[in-house]
């Protein structure tokens, strides 16, 4: 009896352990948050100050700070992999929801392009190293090492729930998060300055361009040196084209690091966390309608991007610019309208879904919802600014009407898509994937099954059911067996439609990420907003808000892959 009593109290010991550490857990989190806030404010101050000529902060000062931060993060990651992760009882459990294969695969893809960008940067700055500070060449080298080390760290450790070196791990993860955000801010600022210079060079002579640089925005120190060789121009244009991948890499890494920080010291109930393994079933049990429509939108979007770049950037005729804007807005209106309709249809299908809501604690899902809602604010802001400018401006032409429709549909599409994805994130996995017990699985192996014969063999009396329950086996009703035998032969119509909708949304979000990320930005080419808000305020609004809109598309793709595919 004493042994039974001691055994009965054992399951309660793990729950008392985290309760006793709850105060220290909150204190450690608060300290790491304060560290991250101060570092983020310092980095933001230097990055924003380094973009303007009249402020005595140079771009190599920013690069020096980022280099030091990345070196510290590299040292901490090595300490974590060699020391913390190998301690006894360091990782008692893993969060199966953290670091899904889609997110880690996207991280690796963006990391590869980031490394190519760093190679181009090294080649570009090495072309005239004699007139540059050494930190301009050291920075991309350190960034390449940082990307490799961090990608490996997140690939193998994204699911860890660490229970040793808690405060050091929390501070290290917050430093890693802050470093990624600082690199992201630097990349966004550098890209915006480059686009502003390109626009000024296109619309002004060389003398006026140099005067404008002295009056306002700073030029890159590399632009003061001569880059006349063909290979130098290739390196320069190449690394600016690869900036969107580096920007997305920093945001993806920040999201994964935040989930790791939330999981430090966490105990997971294994009964409520199912291990979702990757299953290559992308084209199984589908009508291909969503895939075909999505591919049509994807190919059409690539064509629009190419034509837009050719007509706007390579031609000075006003008619060509109007044609390009009309084509761009028409494509986006059609695409956003279809996406809004299918999201509404998916939400209606959910009304017939019998799956229960998943109410378990899940930091990954909480972060997904927060990122979807937060990143959508960037596009909301651009759309509302556009709506105010179009309504208040005169005269109104066809381009203004298309722009107004585009802004309204952008708001509607983000709203309906967020509702559709968030509702899917809170649904339990489909029951038919894991509800079959061993007795039912054995019956699936039969080539021919007589349903009536199987039903007759199942005991229907209460005594037989009681004896089965007493022996540890689950009681099975004949009607349940009949349903279980026929269930695998067909897929629920609701799941089929949800998968078709998700495939279409996935491909559509990809093209809506590619188009603005690689140059097609009508916000800078449409005169309505520029004339209404001015040449300084409107570009600043777009430069701040548009990266969030671009990140929203990629995060929506990752969420759709995780939930529906």
Q: What would the average pLDDT be, to the nearest integer?
A: 75
Helix content: over 70%
Distance between the termini: 52 Å
Judged by helices, strands and strand pairing, the structural class is mainly alpha
Domain module count: 2
Poorly predicted runs of 5 or more residues: 1-23, 204-219, 271-283, 432-476, 484-490
Q: How would you describe the shape?
A: globular
Rg, alpha carbons:
28 Å
Order of helices and strands: HHHHEHHEHHHHHHHHHHHHHHH
Characterize the main sheet: 2 strands, antiparallel
Spatial strand arrangement across the major sheet: 1-2
Tell me the β content.
under 5%
Counting H and I runs of at least 4 residues, what is the number of helices? 21
Number of strands: 2
Family: Belongs to the otopetrin family.
Keywords: Cell membrane, Hydrogen ion transport, Ion channel, Ion transport, Membrane, Transmembrane, Transmembrane helix, Transport
Pfam families: Otopetrin (PF03189)
Region (Disordered): 1-21
Tell me about this structure.
By secondary structure, the chain is an all-alpha fold. The chain has 2 domains: 24-212 and 228-267, no CATH class; 281-429 and 491-564, no CATH class. Helix content is 72%, strand content 1%. The chain is built from 21 helices and 2 strands. The protein is globular. Belongs to the otopetrin family. Its main location: membrane.
């Amino acid at each position: 009896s004493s042994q039974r009593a001691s055994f009965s109290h054992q399951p309660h010991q793990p729950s008392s352990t985290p309760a006793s550490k709850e105060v220290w857990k909150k204190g450690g989190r608060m300290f790491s948050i304060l560290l991250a806030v101060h570092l983020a404010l310092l980095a933001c101050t230097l990055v924003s100050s380094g973009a303007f000529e009249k402020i005595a902060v140079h771009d190599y000062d920013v690069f020096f700070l980022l280099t030091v931060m990345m070196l510290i993060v590299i040292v901490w990651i090595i300490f974590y992999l060699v020391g913390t992760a190998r301690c006894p009882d360091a990782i008692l459990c893993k969060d199966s929801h953290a670091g899904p294969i889609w997110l880690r695969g996207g991280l690796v893809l963006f990391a590869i392009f980031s490394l190519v960008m760093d190679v181009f940067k090294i080649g570009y700055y090495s072309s005239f190293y004699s007139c540059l500070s050494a930190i301009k060449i050291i920075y991309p080298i350190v960034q390449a090492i940082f990307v490799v080390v961090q990608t490996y760290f997140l690939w193998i450790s994204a699911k860890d729930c660490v229970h040793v070196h808690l405060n050091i791990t929390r501070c290290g993860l917050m430093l890693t998060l802050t470093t990624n955000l600082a690199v992201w801010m630097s990349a966004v600022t550098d890209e915006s300055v480059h686009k502003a210079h390109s626009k000024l060079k296109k619309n002004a002579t060389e003398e006026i361009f140099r005067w404008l640089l002295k009056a306002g925005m700073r030029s890159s120190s590399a632009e003061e040196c001569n880059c006349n060789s063909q290979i130098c121009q290739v390196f320069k244009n190449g690394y600016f084209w690869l900036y969107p991948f580096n920007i997305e890499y920093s945001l993806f890494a920040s999201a994964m690091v935040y989930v790791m920080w939330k999981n430090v010291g966490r105990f997971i109930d294994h009964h409520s966390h199912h291990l979702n393994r990757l299953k290559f079933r992308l084209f199984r049990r589908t009508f291909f309608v969503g895939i075909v429509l999505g591919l049509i939108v994807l190919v059409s979007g690539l064509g629009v991007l190419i034509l837009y770049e050719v007509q706007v950037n390579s031609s000075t005729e006003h008619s060509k610019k109007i044609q390009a804007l009309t084509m761009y807005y028409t494509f986006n209106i059609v695409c956003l309208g279809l996406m809004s309709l299918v999201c509404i249809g998916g939400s209606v299908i959910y009304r017939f879904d019998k799956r229960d809501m998943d109410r378990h604690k899940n930091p990954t899902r909480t972060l997904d919802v927060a990122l979807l809602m937060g990143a959508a604010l960037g596009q909301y802001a651009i759309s509302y600014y556009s709506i105010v400018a179009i309504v208040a401006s005169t005269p109104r032409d066809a381009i203004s009407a298309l722009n107004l429709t585009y802004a309204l549909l952008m708001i509607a599409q983000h709203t309906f898509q967020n509702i559709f994805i968030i509702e899917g994130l809170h649904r339990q996995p489909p029951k038919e994937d894991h509800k079959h017990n061993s007795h039912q699985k054995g019956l699936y192996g039969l080539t021919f099954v007589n349903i009536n014969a199987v039903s007759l063999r199942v005991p229907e009396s209460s005594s037989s059911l009681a004896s089965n329950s007493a022996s540890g086996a689950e009681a099975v009703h004949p009607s349940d067996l009949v349903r279980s035998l026929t269930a695998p032969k067909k897929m629920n119509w609701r799941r089929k439609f949800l998968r078709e909708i998700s495939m279409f949304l996935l491909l559509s979000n990809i093209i809506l990420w590619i188009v603005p990320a690689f140059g097609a930005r009508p916000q800078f080419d449409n005169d309505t907003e520029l004339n209404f808000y001015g040449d300084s305020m409107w570009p600043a609004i777009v430069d701040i808000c548009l990266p969030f809109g671009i990140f929203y598309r990629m995060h929506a793709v990752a969420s759709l892959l995780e939930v529906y595919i």
